[in-house]
């Protein structure tokens, strides 16, 4: 697997995404097959031939468009990023983070887990790892609105007016650090520590992050021009 | 790789550990070779032949004692658990957790990283995963003393006297949840999100967990007889 990825990243924004077109249909079939093969046998069991057979397309179609297993992994991750996913909106930060954590835990404990298979693949494929890193970054960026809404509702401490850029003592919230503090324990327990899933963990991890935030743990000096 | 592990878990407490003995010397050479091969090529590149060649021992010696790659992985993880590791003792919980996080971050960002190679292996070897889960459980158990010392110093809120078992309203700290909240963001950022290592992260993650703990995030009702 090489590091040159241009020709193996055909997915995002490409004309093939036109809904209903034949290429879009083939892509959907092939990516469904990749997910199924990944979930069943992990990325070690992933082959272009196996994917083509399961998708019911000719393997030269797969080779031409995705080139190799790395290209398939990149595209299946890109497709996850194209999903119309919306962060939860429950009316409180604690509720939002709990809902987010429940969704994460569910995706990790379901067997077979496509999410865990992707993480495993990212340890072994530089292409898959980079695609996954982009997907995570997008998802955390999407979730920053949870923190913005909490600030707007007055749930979290922010010193200084919103328009008082760089005013002495003004702070803003490091939303990403808060989101990571809230979600990391779920990944850590389920994926790395392989603990039995604890149904209370999503809410507890969310509540701990909110308490830390309320105590100023993620407040940083407002940056000039932010 | 099978699930029966007795014959592939020869390490802990076995007479071979007698310091200075020939078998102990062979084990040290072989495990050093496993670590080097893992760090260089990951577990996918790990073979009994490669380990034997690097260790300078006959491959039948390796087959007889460790049987296969799974046995080697289990023993290298067991050896990590036998290390005389002590949790930090800086005089404050925040300082202790920061020191712990620095040690964790260092082990994850060093290239090649033996710790990351082991995590990758645990996605693919059930034996390695179970051995790693035991090692993590031991390490977190060892670290509970950080929380106990903080409680004894009065840094953290615990309602009810230590000997008032189960008294109404008495609480104790869920030390493990606190430790996971403090350390999980470091693993998450470095291993899963593959972010550039942030030298401030160890202290920030530690500080956030301490603030959450001080606000009661990890306080649970004291259990009868605890």
Secondary structure layout plus pairing:
Two copies of one chain form a homodimer.
Chain A lengths: L21 H20 L6 H8 L3 H8 L2 H14 L10 H17 L4 H9 L3 H27 L18 E3 L1 H18 L8 H14 L4 E3 L5
Antiparallel strand pairs in A: 1-2
Helix pairs in contact in A: 1-2, 1-6, 2-3, 4-7, 5-8, 5-9, 6-7, 7-8, 8-9
Structure in words:
Chains A, B: Residues 1-23 are annotated as: Disordered. Chains A, B: Keywords: DNA-binding, Transcription, Transcription regulation. Chains A, B: This is Probable tetR family transcriptional regulator. Chains A, B: Residues 47-66 bind DNA. The structure is a homodimer of 226-residue chains. The first copy, chain A, has 226 residues and is mostly helical. Chain A has two domains: 6-81, Tetracycline Repressor, domain 2, CATH 1.10.357; 85-221, Tetracycline Repressor, domain 2 (Orthogonal Bundle), CATH 1.10.357. In chain A, 60% of the residues lie in helices and 3% in strands. The longest helix of chain A has 27 residues, at 126-152. Chain A starts with 21 loop residues before the first helix and ends in a 5-residue tail after the last strand. The A-B interface holds A 42, 44, 116, 119-120, 122-124, 129, 133, 136-137, 177, 180-181, 183-185, 187-189, 191-194, 204-205, 207-209, 211-212, 214-218 and B 42, 44, 116, 119-120, 122-124, 129, 133, 136-137, 177, 180-181, 183-185, 187-189, 191-194, 204-205, 207-209, 211-212, 214-218.
